[in-house]
Every structure is written in C-alpha cells, then in structure tokens.
Design goal:
Layout: H1 2-24, H2 37-45, H3 49-55, H4 65-75, H5 79-88, H6 94-97, E1 105-106, E2 112-116, H7 121-126, H8 133-143, E3 158-162, H9 176-193, E4 197-201, H10 203-210, H11 215-218, E5 223-225, E6 228-233, H12 236-241, H13 246-261
Parallel strand pairs: 2-3, 2-4, 4-6
Antiparallel strand pairs: 1-3, 5-6
Length: about 260
Amino acid sequence: MDGLHGDAADWDLALALLEWQVDLGVTEAILDAPVDRYALAEAAVRPAVGAAEQTAVPVARAADPVDEARRAAEAAGSLEALREAVAAYEHCDLKRGARNTVFCDGNPLARLMLIGEAPGREEDAAGRPFVGRAGQLLDRMLAAIGISRTSPDPEAAIYITNVMPWRPPQNRDPSAAEVAMMKPFLARHVELVAPEVIVLMGNTACAAVLGRTGITRLRGRWAEAYGRPVLPMCHPAYLLRQPEAKRESWADLLDLKARLGR
C-alpha cells in the first residue's frame, strides 16, 4: 500500500511540474540525451540511398529557355503564329522593360529580307523596326537602289525584322544569352518568309546569324546562312556617327542591287 501511495505521489508531482513548465512557455519535452537537429534536418532533405532507390521520385528540372524557344518557333505555322509565339515568350527579361514587341515591317513576299539588331526608343514606342533617324537613313539608302518597305511589288520590296524583338535598356548590346534565346525564332522567321537574299545590319545580326562579329571587316563580304546568300552591312546608326563610312555602304548597296538583278 505504501508503494501505491508513493507512485501516486510521484505521478502528482510530475504532473504539477509539467503544468508549471507549460505555464512558463515550454513547448517541447526534455529528453535524456541531446538531439542533433542539424543531422535531423539533413536526413530529411537527403534521404538514405536505399530509400531513394526504392522511391525513385523524379526531380523537376528548370526549363531551358533556348529549348522552349525552339519548340515554340517550330510550332508556328505562319508569320502571325510566330508573332504570337514571340509575344508570349516569357524567358527574356528584356520583354519586361519594353513597351512593345517589335516583330517586323515591310512586305513578307519580298525577295530581300533585312535583319537588324534590336529596337531603339522610337521603335519600341512605335512597335516597328527602323523608324527613328537610323530608319529614315535606311529608307533613303534603299530608295537609292529602287527598294522600299512599302512597295507591294516583291521585286522592289523589302521585309525587315530584328534579332531582338525588345529594346535593351539604354540601347545596350544584347547579351549572348539573350541572343541565343531569339535565334530559334529568327531561324523560323527566315524559313517562313523564304527570301532570296538577306542583309545583316550590324554586329548583333552577324553574331546571331554567322557567329562572327567585327562589322567593319565583315561588311561587303557575301556569306551564306539559312541556305541563302547574306550580305553584312554597317548599321545606319553607325553611319550617322561615322559619315565617312557611307562610301563603303554605297558600294555594298550597288553590290546588293547587282545580286538581286541576277
């Protein structure tokens, strides 16, 4: 009997001590030995090899922006579908700071396609490529050899796009990663338009299409890309800064006219 009374007293004392600790704010029981909670956390994040082999739960991988662009471009069966695919593409941060997606201008039936670099401030506002001072100079250059972006005649028309559809901040050069995202869209763009001849305006266009830069060395030298002849030329913006280079650009235009004539 004394033992039973003793057990009851111990139980009452333990209960009173527990209630006292709860009143003090204690939320966890005290064990006989310390617990290494760092080891517990690591075990929870990294299960045992045997368990991992048994469950074999697949881990989701982040989408590759270039692969996403390639799939979207290949699925576009028309220029309008490609325009929508570019506008819906969310992996390029330039889109977040741009006012408009600048897709194209000119006649899609034209024999000649021009690929520029990226929109500037005026292009971003208008949603069309080459509409600022450089664009006005480009129109005069093309008019000198009988070509216009507004011509309904494919023989005298031009179709214009850019490597980048969104304006980079402060008109900086697009990064290699940004260009890589847009290359599948550009390749599909060329495939859908199917021009006979392509002009590459500036370093970014040459880098995206030919994998080379150094426009002052590349200009005037015909190359091939997308199975078509391409002619690198200095960007009109460069000609506005370096008017002495207009003589060489005039020679390039005459060469372009002769190639189209053949």
